[in-house]
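Hi C.,

You asked whether I'd gotten around to modeling the 444-residue construct. I have! Everything is below, sequence then structure, no commentary in between.
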Amino acid sequence: MNNFVDFLDSKVLPVATKISSQRHMAAIRKGIIATLPLTIIGSFFTILLNIPIESIAAIIEPYKAILDIPFRFTVGILSLYATFGIASSLADSYDLDGMTSGMLAILGFLISTIVPTQVIEPVEGVIESGRYINIAALSSSSLFGAIIAAIVSVEIYHFMKEKNFTIKMPEGVPPEVANSFIALMPTAVIILFFWITRHVLGFDINSVLSSLLLPFKDILAGNSLFGGLLTVFLITFFWVLGVHGPAIMGPVIRPFWDISIAENMTAFQEGTAATDLPNIFTEQFLQWFVWIGGAGGTLTLVVLFLFSKSKYLKSLGRLSILPGLFNINEPMIFGAPIVMNPILGIPFIVAPLVTTTLSYFLTVTNVVPMMMARLPFTVISPIAAWISTDWSIMAGLLVVINFCITIAIYYPFFKVFERQQIEKELEAEQESAAQAATMAEESV
């Protein structure tokens, strides 16, 4: 076991950490996470439009079209915001102007994604003549194209600035003016590159990437039980090794997670029942059904600690109960600790695999609906599951069932760990008493 841990620590973790901290991967992670407030607020409007109380629904009905607008301009154009966030983050790593980089990336993304529709003959009461763009093309379905557009645009800007292919202004010119002139030639190159690629050569970057990466999305964040279990295993496994699991997995899986929940939200907003949405394994599925109290389902361990005979474990349980209720479990992971602790590490990995499997089968059999909203991760799990599945009581009940299952899995390991801790405390007390007796004798 020690040899295996040493191998992981010396060979695997450095590679995983290097990948996670690589500038482009880090920029993707930061840029997509930056869209979180938009998708959460967009979810609130989805929930508001689907409150299961007839009297409230009747009041809302005349205003549905207006209340749908915030959703369309948050989740509905998610890729546009992600483009700016990724580009700005990558620009910071190169010490480039973040605002300019973000704008250039949006320019490249729009050119490579949108084909304007021209309406020559208006339809009275429906549409006026003019040029229109389909905002559906800016949704999560274009997220891969947004990533490429952001990276390529910033790299072009960075290359041209490094090679001095820019227009430099005299000293004394305000920085914002100087940055605008520096960006003139990169802007022309970015326009030509994406225009020629998409509209002259007819190469749709997003469509090609989506076709290539769709199998991975279906495995990691779609409806594959194997993919869901693999994701859960890797996140908990890295945590046991002392590495932030989501931080390691985030650059790889987060784009798929965000696409999956956005697809579900959009489908639900368009009238699809919560039991018939496209994706089971969204991040929210794990947050509410599996990560009860945080990764590893550690709220159950907090409860066990509260009733422990060990003074230390009882104190840790009291300190961890409030954060645990709101799904923050670092006090448990590093305080127990779970890190590098085989006794608690085993249930930390096994329990989520069991609850993931049960939750999956209850979802595919339509006992529990799929996730149709994105709430802050600090919402208490049963409540969040109830709201996020179109007010399904069974979803909230599943959280309670998974909590009980997790307690049953943790319990025997907890008892072993508790016994060890009590023995250590007794030894410490005996040693302290012996030292006190020795000091008393010496003082006499």
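If it helps when you're writing up: The mean pLDDT is 86.

Thanks,
B.
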